[in-house]
Amino acid sequence: MDAASHSPDWTIPQGWESYTPQEHKTWVTLYDRQAAILPGRACEPFLRGLAALDLRGTGIPDFRRLSEKLTALTGWSVVAVPGLVPEDVFFEHLAHRRFPAGNFIRTPENLDYLQEPDVFHDVFGHVPMLTDPVFADYMQAYGEGGLRALKLGHLGNLARLYWYTVEFGLLETPEGLRIYGAGIVSSRTETVFALEDPSPNRLGFDLARVLRTPYRIDDFQQVYFVIKSLQSLLDITTQTDFAPLYRDLEHQPDYPIAATTDQDHVFHSGTQAYANSK
Ligand code: PHE
Ligand code: FE
């Protein structure tokens, strides 16, 4: 998309009328695959949001109607963008409670893998959590924090927080570990892997630790961080001034992704955590 053809905030019309029957069918296929495995794995706020927004419908949601429902719940809306947008643009949207979502959908040949987030990842993965008032506040605060990190030259560190919470976060519940991260709930294979595979580390969330942990974008995660509650995530991030943390990080090395330290709280066997819950 060339610079002249989008508005300064990079939003475009969703073009809902232009989706083909095949594209709507792809949405329903993806929806049904996830709906079959998410109960007992995704956290309650996600499942509640999914139901409240009635996302299955007959295909790809119309952002206008979706936004009406979402705005009534938490004041958020969904705006269409052509794909990834510049960081400052992305943060401005979040800071104003607008979630930018790609308007295109993956092809039937690539149901499980895609390089850029499409409408299924963005809407099915992210939007249900935005119906939760606490998570809704967290995402807005993250947008404001992103603008600040950009100015302070530490976006690389803050991006890890987004990755290990918004995209790949796990939540501790009395019934066992549950998923809230959009990158997991929108992926059939990682939904199972994140909770049940013995290989990845599942570590108690520690803010400074997360900011020092790199991530991989090309495979399943080797480490997931587990929060105690959405409220605790909101509290720790909004009550901490990140500027001194960023300064400290300049003198501290990153952690190797797959390593644990004596300070880490390690959750044992995801299989067990999940099985205990049934
Ligand atoms: N409190 C953070 C700061 O001082 C901002 C922030 C809030 C970042 C919530 C992420 C999530 O920069
Ligand atoms: Fe995402």
What is the element layout, followed by pairings?
Blueprint: H1 21-37, H2 44-53, H3 63-74, E1 77-81, H4 87-95, E2 98-102, H5 119-126, H6 133-152, H7 155-167, E3 170-173, E4 176-179, H8 182-185, H9 188-196, E5 201-204, H10 207-211, E6 223-227, H11 230-239, H12 242-249, H13 270-275
Parallel strand pairs: 1-2, 3-6, 5-6
Antiparallel strand pairs: 3-4
This protein binds phenylalanine and fe (iii) ion.
What do you see in this structure?
- It is a single chain.
- The chain is an alpha/beta fold and 278 residues long.
- It is 47% helix and 10% strand.
- The protein has 13 helices and 6 strands.
- Strands 4-3-6-5 form a 4-stranded mixed beta sheet.
- Phenylalanine (PHE) is lined by residues 141-142, 145, 148, 161, 237-238, 240-242.
Short description:
The chain has 13 helices and 6 strands. With 278 residues, it is of the alpha/beta class.
Shape: globular
Major sheet summary line: 4 strands, mixed
Indicate the structural class: alpha/beta
Total helical elements:
13
